[in-house]
Amino acid sequence: MVLAGPSKSADATFKYISPEQVPVKYGGLSKDIPIATEDTVTEAIVKPAAKYTIDLPASDACILSWELRVLGADVSYRAQFEPTTEGSYAVIVSKNRRIESTDEPVITESFKVGEPGKIVITIDNQTSKKKKVLYRFKTLPISDL
């Protein structure tokens, strides 16, 4: 048995069970979406008063889906598609928005990619505490739809 307070319960749980197997209501990413529980979860730390970017590559036309959770919330989140083709324009996928502890704990989004590029997710932590980010993504070729 392991005892942990509310602010450390997710960290304690992830020492023994991977985040992709833990239900959302307990701090994990297990949810019914196109991303399977076998898809690897990446963990990152966002330092206090800092921004952290996540690049999700897309080499061909596809549907790019992702899940993201910030433990502790109180950050800003945005996502945009940046094509690699010169002369193409960036597309805002999700406007800058504040994620509070009362919001939906897992952000789940998809974007239909028509050309090579990447989704750039920005997490802005303006608090004095570090935040842990859990995310995973999957690309599904349009021919598979």
From TrEMBL:
Pfam families in alphabetical order: GOLD_PATL1_C (PF25099)
Cross-referenced SUPFAM superfamilies: Supernatant protein factor (SPF), C-terminal domain
Residue ranges of domain GOLD in the record: 38-139
Transmembrane segments: none
InterPro entries cross-referenced by the UniProt entry: GOLD_dom, GOLD_dom_sf, PATL, PATL1-6_C_GOLD
Designated name of the protein: GOLD domain-containing protein
Annotated source species: Brassica cretica (Mustard)
